[in-house]
Specification:
The protein is 0% helix and 54% strand. With 115 residues, it is mainly beta. It has no helices and eleven strands. The strands form two sheets. Strands 2, 4, 5, 6, 9, 10 and 11 form a seven-stranded mixed β-sheet that branches. Strands 1-3-8-7 form a four-stranded antiparallel β-sheet, with no helix packed on it.
Length: 115
Amino acid sequence: QVQLVESGGGLVQPGGSLRLSCAASRISISSFHMGWYRQAPGKQREAVATITPAAGTNYADSVKGRFTISRDNAENTVYLKMTSLKPEDTAVYYCNLIVDLMHFWGQGTQVTVSS
């Protein structure tokens, strides 16, 4: 079974930065679309950023210019660099992998932006 493990979340002040990591196991990520999603309390899960096997990227309007998704196929890891963080970025962030239309998810990592 595919496993995705997120790390790097935490408490940060507004304007600060964090880098999330998603390490995959039992599968090589190089051929698959991957992404980061987030879910804030009382809200639906939403896509934050996605990356294709060719490293093409797409971002939610709310994070464009602040977040950067990248992948290291040799390390089997996807990253999300988050800068200029805002309180509204507070959420649980989930890594996502799509294989043949099947979605796999990590357990999530909490990001809290607060002074």
